[in-house]
Write a structure and sequence with these properties.
Layout: H1 5-13, E1 21-24, E2 30-32, H2 33-49, E3 57-61, H3 66-77, E4 81-84, H4 91-101, E5 105-108, H5 113-122, E6 127-130, H6 138-143
Parallel strand pairs: 3-4, 3-5, 5-6
Antiparallel strand pairs: 1-2
């Protein structure tokens, strides 16, 4: 799979009008194709700034959200491998996955940061971020400082 699959499909889907509504949450938050593109560009630029090895693994254990979807696109845009875990999975499962996958980045909800970061850092993971389903977390806080333009 090449890194532009999901991102390129999104671009084609909203090519006529990137400002049109693309997604709406149950809470009434509305996202245009342009919002999704800009968000994934900022996250992709954050990932790129970390100087990760090519095709690095990004392990993610967060609740489903638009921002988690944007992270999938950002990971693909940078050519890395998105590895989602069940947000209700056990500590043992997390430890096993991190030990075997050797991710360069781990993203988890803030509520689990304490124990997830210990597992990740013990396994040699250099970067651990948080991402919550309420549009907060260190991943978003760091990504907002990066450009919203990201060429492939």
């Amino acid at each position: 799979m090449n890194p532009e699959n999901l991102w390129a499909a999104q671009q084609r889907a909203y090519a006529d009008d990137l400002t049109a509504l693309a997604l709406e949450t149950d809470a009434g938050l509305r996202y245009s194709g342009q919002d999704l593109d800009r968000g994934s560009a900022m996250m992709a630029n954050l990932l790129r700034s970390l100087d990760l090895p090519e095709r690095s693994c990004v392990v993610v254990r967060v609740a489903k959200s638009i921002e988690a979807r944007i992270l999938i696109e950002a990971t693909e845009r940078t050519g890395h491998v998105f590895f989602p875990l069940d947000n209700e999975g056990s500590n043992t499962e997390m430890a096993q996955v991190v030990a075997s996958a050797q991710p360069a980045v781990v993203v988890c909800s803030a509520a689990h940061f304490g124990w997830v970061s210990k597992i990740a850092f013990k396994s040699g993971t250099q970067h651990v971020f948080t991402l919550n389903d309420d549009r907060t977390g260190s991943l978003l806080a760091r990504a907002v400082h990066h450009s919203d333009q990201h060429p492939l």
